[in-house]
Amino acid sequence: MKTRPFPFSRLALAAAGLLAAAGCSIVPEAKTDPMRFYVLATAAAGATPVASAPAVQLREVELASYLRSRPMVVRRGANELEFRDFARWGEPLEAGIARVLREELLARGAASAVLTAGSRREATKIDATLTVRVLACEGEAGGAVAFRAVWELAPAAPESKVPAARGDFHAPDLRWDGKSEAALAAQLSQAVSALAAQIAGELGKK
């Protein structure tokens, strides 16, 4: 007795039924992009410069080499760094620091103009140059915020009304929760604002 071949159409129907029973498991699920971008912020934007204040040339902010990448940095001990690949700066960190410094110095009345890299000088007479090098700009796993910068003001000419000055700035006691990169960005913004306040104090001296 011969065995009747199982019709192909029935095999196809059976396979389709199994797939249907499996539901949508073969359809790739849409995934939420985990990448987040952050910027430094200041409440000083839009301030009117004081015309009698000195004009400052802010040189390009220098960063310690490990800070030149876009991921935010969290320090774990003296020798271990964690680069948070899904939490990135939305602009080069040196550009963000320069932007906040500029806005803060203008808002505090410490400068009539702050020219940064790429600014058009036109007829602006520069009274002093400002050099800033950032040595630390990160959160610590334990909840502290580390920000350190060395800076120098140099008169642009012997008759300049701005005295030479320099400083080694350490951020005040700032904290974050060790998890929220948004909170870390906010605390680092405060650190840069505090740096601007120290520089503004020197610009105001005669």
Could you give a short description of this structure?
By secondary structure, this protein is α/β, with parallel strands linked by helices.
What is the element layout, followed by pairings?
Elements: H1 8-21, E1 36-38, E2 55-58, E3 62-63, E4 71-75, E5 81-89, H2 93-107, E6 113-115, E7 128-140, E8 145-155, E9 165-170, H3 181-203
Parallel strand pairs: 1-5, 2-6, 2-7, 3-7, 4-7
Antiparallel strand pairs: 4-5, 7-8, 8-9
Task: Describe this structure as you would to a colleague.
- The chain has a single domain (36-203), classed as Rossmann fold (3-Layer(aba) Sandwich).
- The mean pLDDT is 86.
- β7 (128-140) and β8 form a beta hairpin.
- It is of the alpha/beta class and 206 residues long.
- It has three helices and nine strands.
- The protein has helices spanning 8-21, 93-107, 181-203, and strands spanning 36-38, 55-58, 62-63, 71-75, 81-89, 113-115, 128-140, 145-155, 165-170.
- The chain is elongated.
- 30% of the residues are buried.
- The protein starts with 7 loop residues before the first helix and ends with a helix.
- Strands 1, 2, 3, 4, 5, 6, 7, 8 and 9 form a nine-stranded mixed beta sheet that branches.
- α2 packs across α3 (181-203).
